[in-house]
UniProtKB/TrEMBL annotation:
Function: Transfers mannose from GDP-mannose to dolichol monophosphate to form dolichol phosphate mannose (Dol-P-Man) which is the mannosyl donor in pathways leading to N-glycosylation, glycosyl phosphatidylinositol membrane anchoring, and O-mannosylation of proteins; catalytic subunit of the dolichol-phosphate mannose (DPM) synthase complex.
Enzyme class: transferase
Localization, UniProt: Endoplasmic reticulum
Single Gene Ontology BP annotation: GPI anchor biosynthetic process
Reaction equations catalysed: a di-trans,poly-cis-dolichyl phosphate + GDP-alpha-D-mannose = a di-trans,poly-cis-dolichyl beta-D-mannosyl phosphate + GDP
CDD domains: DPM1_like (cd06442)
Gene name in the database record: Dpm1
PANTHER family: DOLICHOL-PHOSPHATE MANNOSYLTRANSFERASE SUBUNIT 1
Protein name as catalogued: Dolichol-phosphate mannosyltransferase subunit 1
Pathway: Protein modification; protein glycosylation
Length: 207
């Protein structure tokens, strides 16, 4: 690719063999390219970002799910978009251009669409996909946002964009295809939906 990169894998004790596969990749590509930084149990998305950031040596950080629902083929497009507009953040969007979602049932699609619609109405964030997590950040911008964000779980992604707008950071978007995971299960349940709604109302009241 001609891009200088490292891959930092944060695994929170998942039972799906992620760590074992990452160890094999480390042997093939070297520990300078594949950095496995596991944690003993699930400690939340926000703390995983902070944990990964501590080990990142580059000026830009791409955050993505490792189950290939976020396809690496979009990363060069993120980099191109960033250079094109000198953006602080480039966010993958499923809801613009030729972006889309594949493999979800109707319930999951309705939840995601509904969450985005509610967020657009209440917060007017100026970005089309608030609940996705496939994004490129300037490292120093990500650090600043992490200091400001207080949410946990799925609200966290939304708060990152809302706070970025508040702080005057620029956001570019790249349409992506999101393909539901082949292995493993989504962690989205009733508790996450309730906490999302609470978080959305908190952001509405405080931003």
């Amino acid at each position: 690719s001609g891009i200088d990169f490292e891959i930092i894998i944060i695994d929170d004790g998942s039972p799906d063999g992620t760590q074992e596969i990452a160890q094999q990749l480390e042997k093939i590509y070297g520990s300078d390219k594949i950095l496995l930084r596991p944690r003993p149990r699930k400690l939340g998305l926000g703390t995983a970002y902070i944990h990964g950031m501590k080990h990142a040596t580059g000026n830009f950080i791409v955050i993505m799910d490792a189950d290939l629902s976020h396809h690496p083929k979009f990363i060069p497009e993120f980099i191109r978009k960033q250079k094109e507009g000198n953006f602080d953040i480039v966010s993958g969007t499923r809801y613009k251009g030729n972006g889309g979602v594949y493999g979800w049932d109707l319930r999951r699609k309705l939840i995601s669409r509904g969450a985005n619609f509610l967020t657009q109405v209440l917060l007017r964030p100026g970005a089309s996909d608030l609940t996705g997590s496939f994004r490129l950040y300037r490292k120093e911008v990500l650090q600043k946002l992490m200091e400001k964000c207080v949410s946990k779980g799925y609200v966290f992604q939304m708060e990152m964009i809302v706070r970025a707008r508040q702080l005057g950071y620029t956001i570019g978007e790249v349409p992506i295809s999101f393909v539901d995971r082949v292995y493993g299960e989504s962690k989205l349940g009733g508790n996450e939906i309730v906490s999302f709604l609470k978080g959305l109302l908190t952001l509405f009241a405080t931003t």
